[in-house]
Design a protein that fits this description.
The complex is a heterodimer of chains A (about 600) and B (about 375). Chain A has about 600 residues and is of the alpha+beta class. Chain A is about 35% helix and about 15% strand. Chain A contains 16 helices and 16 strands. In chain A, strand 11 and strand 12 form a beta hairpin. Chain A starts with a strand and ends in a 17-residue tail after the last helix. Chain B is α/β, with parallel strands linked by helices and about 375 residues long. Chain B folds into three domains: about 50 residues, no CATH class; about 180 residues, Rossmann fold (3-Layer(aba) Sandwich); about 130 residues, Cytochrome-c3 Hydrogenase, Chain A, domain 2, CATH 4.10.480. Chain B is built from 15 helices and seven strands. Chain B has a five-stranded parallel β-sheet, with helices on both faces. In chain B, helix 8 links the parallel strand 6 and strand 7. The chains are: A alpha+beta (about 600), B alpha/beta (about 375).
Chain lengths: ~600, ~375
C-alpha cells in the first residue's frame, strides 16, 4: 500500500514519515499507535495495536456460572463492577432468573455512580493534560483566575487567595526539580491554547477532582462492600435492606441510605459546578480544533443501559436507548440485537489469532466464536519479534479482534450513545446537547470530533449524576410501599437449572457497548465470551480493509511537531481506552490451549 | 537540580503547622500499630529525608490497584504523589507518552541507581517470549528485569504481582508469573488483595519512606501489621458464628440481621488481610459488612479453590490441618456449643502448625 481508499471511505497513504507512540500513557492497559504524516505533518495513515492479552475467557471454562461475575469484574478495575453486572445479566438471561425491583435500582445506582466517577477521573486525570498546560499555570494571575471562575460557576472555592495557594504549591513542586508525573511532557507546545488563568483553574480542579472522586464510589462500598471491585450476586444484590427491624446494622439501613443520598447531592454539585463549566470554558478555546471525528459522523452504536423496569432490557425500559446509526443518517435508527448472529461478528484476519479450519476471513458470532492465539508479525514489520520497531498493518498486528455490526466498523461510547439518543429524539438528551451547542455557538456537526466525544462524556456525567437522584427516590418509594427484597434465590441451586442453557448480558459500560455471551452445560460454563467497548473502538482492520474508530479518527489531523504526539494523545484519549478490557480470548472447546507454547 | 526537599519542608510549605505535623506522625504511628515512641522517629525521618523516587510499572493487570491507591483518604493520594514521594514513572498517570515516557526510566536509573522503589502492578506473562504484554515494542518482562536490576526494593501491589491472580488462574494460558518468581535478587514486599485496601497501600509506602526500612514481613513476604490476622478472628459477625447463627441463603432473615456468612461461602476463616479492621473507602464498610462473603482475594491462588459460594471446608491456611469438615459440620448442624469447641480447638492447632504449613505451601 502506498495510497488507497478503504471500503468505509477513508483515504490512507503510508508514504510519509512513520511516527510510533508506545506506550500511550494515561489509559488503562497497553496500547501502541503508529501513524504516517505527510510533508505538512498531517496524519495520512493510522495503526492501532492492542499490546496485551490475558485469556480470561479460557480461564472461565468449567467454572460455576455464579462465580463468573467475580472473574469478569477483574477484566477491568477502572470501569470496576461493569463487567460483573453484565456477567450477572448473562447468567440470569441463560437461566431465566428475574431480579427484584430493589436489586435493579441498586444496580442502576452502582452503575450510575461508576459512570460519574469514571468520567470525572477520565476528564481531569487522563485527558485534561492534553489541553491544559501545567507550566503555563505558573504565570497566571490568581485574581484573574478567581474572576474567571466566578464568571462561570457558583463553586465556592474561587477566591484569589485560594488560587494563589494552589499556584504556590505547583511552583514549589516544579522548583523542587522532581516533576514526577509531569516530567518530560509537552509543556509550552503551540498546540496548547488556554490562557494561563484557565490553565491554573483547570490544574486546581485536577487536584480537587482527585480528592472528590473517592467520595462518589462510596455508593459501591455501601451496597457492594468496597471499591474497586465491589460484590455482586446472580439473582439480585448481596446487600439486604433492613430499615425497621432488629439487627438493621447488618443491612442497608437509614444511616447508609442517608449517606447515599448525600453523596448523590454532592456529586451533582461537583459535576455541575466544576466539571461542566471547566469543559465549556476549555472547549471555547479549542473550537477551531475540529479534528478527530472519524467514524462518529458515520456509524455509531449503543446497546442501551439503565433499565427503568427490572428485567426489561429493551427500549421500553432503557433510560439511555439502544440503537445504531449508519452512514451518518440520523433520520433512521436501527435496533441492535446482540443475540442475532447476522448482526455481531468478530474477525481475526489482522489479529494475533487464527480460526480453526480453512476460512480465516469469516466472521463469527460470539456464541459460535473461537480463538487460538497466533502471534506473527507481518512481512514488512521492522525489527524483530521481541523488539518491534514498526508494525506491518498489512499482516496481523493487534491482540484485539475486529468486531463488526452487520459488517460495519462502529464507534461506541458516550458520543455514540448521545448521537443515538439525540437521533431518537430523547428530550433530556436533546436539551442537554442543544444547550451546550448554543453556549458554544456551534452547529450539530461539531459533535463529530475529538471535542464532541469529550463534550458528550461531560454531559453524560451530569446526566448520570442527576439520574442517581431519580433512581434513589424511586427505590425509596418502593421501600416505603413495603418491598425490601434484594435477591431472588429461587433458581440459586444448580439442581434447578436445565442441562444446557445459553444467555447474553448486554449494556453500556462508560466506554461503550459491552456484551457477555455465555453457554452453560451441566451447571458449568461451557463457553464464555465478551466483546467490550475498546475492542470496537481500537479494532484493527477487517478482511475487507475497513478501519476502526481509533484509526479513522486520527486521519487528517495536523501535528504541530511529529516528535511531540500531543494531537494523537488528544484524539485517542477522547475514546478513554481500556486495553485490559479489550484483549480477550474465546475458546469453544478448550483444545486451543494445547497450541499455547510453554517455554 | 535544586536540592531535594524533605517531607517536612513540603508539609510546612503546604501551610501545615509543626503541631499538626507532630500529630500526623502520631496518627501514622498508631495507624501502623506502632507504639507512641515511634512518633518521634517518624517525625525525625520525615524532617530529614528527600522525596524518594518511585517507578510504578504495569504488567498484565486490570489497574484496580491504581484505582484503589487513589481512593486513599489518609493520606490523600494527591499528597502522596505530589509531596511524599516522587512518582517519576507511572504510565496510568504521567503526562508524557511514547519515547518521552520511556526516557524517564533511563533518567531514573542514571540519577538514582539503587535508590528508587520499584512499584509493580500486574505481572509479566512468560509464554510467547513475553509478547502477551508488549511495551514499547518489547516484552514487559524485559523492562521489569531492567528496572529491578537498578532499584532498591520492590513493592508487589495486589494479588497479580504477589501471586498471579486472575490471569494466572487455571489454566494460566499466558503463563502470567508473580514478581518474586521473576526477580529473585531484590527484596519483594507483597501487598496482596484484589485490590489491596487503599490505606494499606499508602500505609506500606509511607512506612518505607518514614523509616527507610522494609516493613517486617511474614513468611510469605507480606507486611505483618496488615496481613497478620485472619478476617474471621476480627470479624464483627464472629459472635454469630460462635452462636451458630448463619445466613442460609442471600436476602433471608439471617442476612437482614447480619448473621455469619460462612454457609454462603465466606472465605474469612482462611484469609489474612485488614478488611475487618481497617475496612474500605475510609473505613466505611467491607465485603462482609455489605452482606457478601469474603472472596479471599488476598490469598494465593484464591481463584482455584472452588466456588465462592461453597463453605470453607478446611480452616487451615494453605492446606494446613487445623480442622476437618466434620468438626465444622458440627457447627453447621446447629450444635453450637460443640461447634465452638471444635473451632476453638482447631484455632489452637492452627496456631501451632501455621508456620509450617505456610512454609510448605509457598513455592
Amino acid at each position: 500500500m502506498t495510497s488507497t481508499v478503504t471500503p468505509n471511505g477513508f483515504a490512507l497513504d503510508d508514504s510519509g514519515q512513520r511516527v510510533v507512540v508506545d506506550p500511550i500513557c494515561r489509559i488503562e492497559g497497553h496500547l501502541r499507535i503508529e501513524v504516517n504524516v505527510d510533508e505538512d505533518n498531517v496524519i495520512r495513515n493510522a495503526v492501532s495495536t492492542g499490546n496485551m492479552w490475558r485469556g480470561l475467557e479460557v480461564i472461565l471454562k468449567g467454572r460455576d456460572p455464579r462465580d463468573a461475575w467475580a472473574f469478569t469484574e477483574r477484566i477491568c478495575g477502572v470501569c470496576t463492577g461493569v463487567h460483573a453486572l453484565i456477567s450477572c445479566r448473562s447468567v440470569e438471561d441463560a437461566l431465566g432468573i428475574d431480579i427484584p425491583r430493589n436489586a435493579n435500582s441498586i444496580r442502576n445506582l452502582m452503575m450510575l455512580a461508576q459512570y460519574t466517577q469514571d468520567h470525572l477521573v477520565h476528564f481531569y486525570h487522563l485527558h485534561a493534560l492534553d489541553w491544559v498546560d501545567v507550566v503555563s499555570a505558573l504565570s497566571a494571575d490568581p485574581a484573574a483566575t478567581s474572576a474567571l471562575q466566578q464568571s462561570i460557576s457558583p463553586w465556592p472555592k474561587s477566591s484569589p487567595g485560594y488560587f494563589r495557594d494552589v499556584q504556590n504549591k505547583i511552583k514549589r513542586f516544579v522548583e523542587s526539580g522532581q516533576l514526577g508525573p509531569f516530567a518530560n511532557a509537552y509543556w509550552g507546545s503551540p498546540a496548547y491554547k488556554l490562557p494561563p488563568e484557565a490553565n491554573l483553574m483547570a490544574v486546581t480542579h485536577y487536584l480537587e477532582a482527585l480528592d472528590f472522586q473517592k467520595e462518589i464510589v462510596k455508593i459501591h462500598t455501601i451496597f457492594g462492600g468496597r471499591n474497586p471491585h465491589p460484590n455482586w450476586l446472580v439473582g439480585g444484590m448481596p446487600c439486604t435492606l433492613n430499615i425497621n427491624d432488629v439487627g438493621s446494622a447488618g443491612g442497608v439501613n437509614m444511616v447508609w441510605l442517608n449517606q447515599v443520598s448525600d453523596i448523590i447531592d454532592k456529586s451533582i454539585t461537583f459535576i455541575d459546578q466544576v466539571y461542566i463549566p471547566d469543559l465549556t470554558a476549555i472547549a471555547s478555546f479549542y473550537k477551531d480544533w475540529g479534528f478527530g471525528g472519524g467514524l462518529s459522523s458515520q456509524n455509531v452504536m449503543s446497546y442501551g443501559e439503565f433499565p427503568a423496569i427490572a428485567n426489561n432490557y429493551t427500549n421500553e425500559s432503557w433510560m439511555m436507548p439502544n440503537g445504531a446509526i449508519l452512514n451518518g443518517d440520523l433520520s433512521t435508527v436501527y435496533d441492535v440485537d446482540p443475540r442475532d448472529p447476522e448482526q455481531i461478528q468478530e474477525f481475526v484476519t489482522h489479529s494475533w489469532y487464527k480460526y480453526d479450519g480453512g476460512d480465516q476471513a469469516r466472521g463469527l458470532h460470539p456464541w459460535d466464536g473461537e480463538t487460538d492465539p497466533y502471534f506473527e508479525l507481518g512481512p514488512n514489520a521492522k525489527g524483530t519479534k521481541t523488539n518491534i520497531e514498526a508494525i506491518d498493518e498489512g499482516g496481523k498486528y493487534s491482540w484485539l479482534k475486529a468486531p463488526r455490526w452487520r459488517g460495519n466498523a462502529m464507534e461506541v461510547g458516550p458520543l455514540a450513545r448521545y448521537l443515538v439518543a439525540y437521533a431518537r429524539g430523547q428530550q433530556d438528551i436533546v436539551d442537554q446537547v442543544d444547550g451546550l451547542l448554543a453556549a458554544l455557538d456551534l452547529p450539530v456537526g461539531a459533535l463529530f470530533s475529538t471535542l464532541g466525544r469529550t463534550a458528550a462524556r461531560g454531559l453524560e456525567c451530569s446526566w448520570t449524576a442527576h439520574k442517581m437522584r431519580e433512581v434513589y427516590d424511586d427505590m425509596m418509594a418502593n421501600v416505603k410501599a413495603g418491598d425490601i427484597a434484594t435477591a431472588n434465590m429461587d433458581l440459586w441451586e444448580p439442581a434447578t437449572w436445565p442441562g444446557v442453557a445459553q444467555g447474553v448480558g448486554f449494556g453500556e459500560a462508560p466506554r461503550g457497548a459491552l456484551g457477555h455471551w455465555i453457554n452453560i452445560a451441566d451447571t458449568k460454563i461451557a463457553n464464555y465470551q465478551c466483546i467490550v467497548p475498546t475492542t470496537w473502538n481500537a479494532s484493527p482492520r477487517d478482511p475487507d480493509g475497513n478501519i476502526g474508530a481509533y484509526e479513522a479518527a486520527l486521519l487528517g489531523t495536523p501535528m504541530a511537531d511529529p516528535a511531540q504526539p500531543l494531537e494523537i494523545l488528544r484524539t485517542i484519549h477522547s475514546f478513554d481506552p481500556c486495553l485490559a478490557c479489550a484483549s480477550h480470548i474465546i475458546s469453544p472447546d478448550g483444545q486451543e490451549l494445547a497450541s499455547v507454547k510453554i517455554r | 537540580m535544586p536540592a531535594q526537599e524533605t517531607f517536612y519542608e513540603v508539609m510546612r510549605q503546604h501551610g501545615i503547622t509543626r503541631r499538626s505535623f507532630v500529630k500526623f506522625c502520631s496518627l501514622t504511628a498508631a495507624g501502623l500499630g506502632l507504639g507512641p515512641g515511634y512518633a518521634g522517629k517518624i517525625a525525625h525521618a520525615l524532617e530529614t529525608k528527600p522525596r524518594t523516587p518511585v517507578i510504578w510499572l504495569h504488567g498484565l493487570e486490570c489497574t484496580c490497584c491504581t484505582e484503589s491507591f487513589i481512593r486513599s483518604g489518609n493520606p490523600l493520594a494527591g499528597d502522596v504523589i505530589l509531596s511524599m514521594l516522587s512518582l517519576d514513572y507511572d504510565d496510568t498517570l504521567m503526562a508524557a507518552a511514547g519515547h518521552q515516557a520511556e526516557e524517564l526510566l533511563e533518567q531514573t536509573v542514571a540519577k538514582y541507581d539503587g535508590q528508587f522503589i520499584l512499584a509493580c502492578e500486574g505481572n509479566p506473562p512468560l509464554n510467547e517470549d513475553g509478547m502477551y504484554c508488549i511495551q514499547a515494542g518489547r516484552p514487559y518482562v524485559e523492562k521489569l528485569r531492567y528496572m529491578a536490576d537498578h532499584c532498591k526494593a520492590i513493592i508487589a501491589w495486589g494479588s497479580c504481582a504477589s501471586w498471579g491472580c486472575v490471569q494466572a488462574a487455571r489454566p494460566n494460558p499466558t503463563r502470567a508469573t508473580p514478581i518474586h518468581k521473576v526477580i529473585t535478587d531484590k527484596p519483594v514486599i507483597k501487598v496482596p488483595g484484589c485490590p489491596p485496601i487503599a490505606e494499606v497501600m499508602t500505609g506500606v509506602i509511607t512506612y518505607m519512606l518514614a523509616f527507610e526500612q522494609l516493613p517486617p514481613l511474614d513468611r510469605q513476604g507480606r507486611p505483618k501489621m496488615f496481613y497478620g490476622q485472619r478476617l474471621h478472628d476480627k470479624c464483627y459477625r464472629r459472635p454469630h458464628f460462635d452462636a451458630g447463627q448463619f445466613v442460609e441463603r442471600f436476602d433471608d432473615e439471617g442476612a437482614r440481621k447480619g448473621y455469619c456468612l460462612y454457609k454462603v461461602g465466606c472465605k474469612g476463616p482462611t484469609t489474612y488481610n485488614a478488611c475487618s479492621t481497617v475496612e474500605w473507602n475510609g473505613g466505611l464498610s467491607w465485603p462482609v459488612k455489605s452482606g457478601h462473603g469474603c472472596l479471599g482475594c488476598a490469598e494465593d491462588n484464591f481463584w482455584d479453590k472452588g466456588s465462592f459460594y461453597n463453605p470453607v471446608t478446611n480452616f487451615g491456611v494453605m492446606g494446613g490441618a487445623e480442622a476437618t469438615a466434620d468438626k465444622i459440620g458440627g457447627v453447621l448442624a446447629g450444635a453450637a456449643a460443640v461447634g465452638v469447641a471444635a473451632h476453638a480447638a482447631a484455632s489452637v492447632v492452627g496456631r501451632m502448625t501455621r508456620g509450617k504449613s505456610k512454609e510448605t505451601s509457598h513455592d
